[in-house]
Design brief:
The complex is a heterodimer of chains A (93) and B (110).
Chain A lengths: L1 E10 L12 E6 L11 E5 L8 E5 L2 H8 L9 E5 L11
Chain B lengths: L1 E9 L13 E6 L11 E5 L8 E6 L16 E6 L2 E4 L4 E3 H4 L12
Parallel strand pairs in B: 3-5
Antiparallel strand pairs in B: 1-2, 1-4, 2-3, 4-5, 6-7
The chains are: A mainly beta (93), B mainly beta (110).
Chain lengths: 93, 110
């Protein structure tokens, strides 16, 4: 799982039937220091997240499909939680 | 899933039997601001996307799921055509303006 921030929303009318009824969000994976980690991705929302939220992102098919409750569907990224707070042990990178 | 734009298509007469009849598109991955990022790739298509259209695609084993019960050996498939992208701060990007490649007619099939 990755730490990420929601940076935008997508709308798509014509899409695979299994994607209907769920929000599609643009999320930017983050490093622990808050900097960007690679490119932003499109993820399906399983927790009703919104733009600006810091979230937990799964980037693997089985977990993403399970999170949104749609097995055997073409989903490989999903938001599975909000992050309230991150505690790091001081001095450990 | 990843954001991208259709920039072309691929024809192959000899291919895996499970892929017969499937369209193959060349996709340019994009940033949320619709700037090109990374290298182009070939995707199967389950939406009927045309040249210049803004799409999102899925990678990995899940790329073969739209075609069940067939299981084409695909690792990337276009699964949706994007209408609009709303970003937090700078602007709202709507598909009619951003979804058009100047060299291609929107929605034109390859």
């Amino acid at each position: 799982m990755l730490i990420a921030r929601v940076v935008g929303e997508l709308t798509a009318t014509q899409k695979h039937a299994s994607h209907e009824g769920r929000k599609l969000l643009l999320v930017q994976p983050l490093n622990l220091d808050g900097s960007d980690r690679g490119d932003a991705v499109v993820a399906m929302d399983a927790v009703d997240a919104g733009v600006g939220d810091k979230v937990l992102l799964v980037t693997e098919g089985f977990s993403a499909m399970t999170a949104v409750g749609r097995p055997q569907s073409p989903i490989d990224m999903a938001i599975v939680g909000f992050i309230d707070h991150i505690d790091l042990i001081p001095g450990v990178d | 899933m990843y954001l991208g734009r259709v920039i072309g298509c691929v024809w192959a007469t000899v291919k895996n039997p499970e892929m017969v009849g499937q369209r193959m598109l060349i996709i340019q991955p994009l940033t949320p601001e619709l700037q090109n990022t990374g290298k182009q790739l070939v995707c199967l298509d389950c939406t009927g996307a045309g040249s210049g259209e803004l799409i999102y695609y899925v990678r990995g084993k899940e790329a073969s799921f739209p075609f069940l019960p067939a299981e084409p050996p695909a690792d990337a498939t276009v699964v949706g055509i994007v209408d609009t992208v709303h970003l937090k701060s700078p602007r709202k990007i709507s598909a009619p303006a951003g979804n058009r490649n100047p060299t291609h007619k929107k929605g034109k099939r390859c």
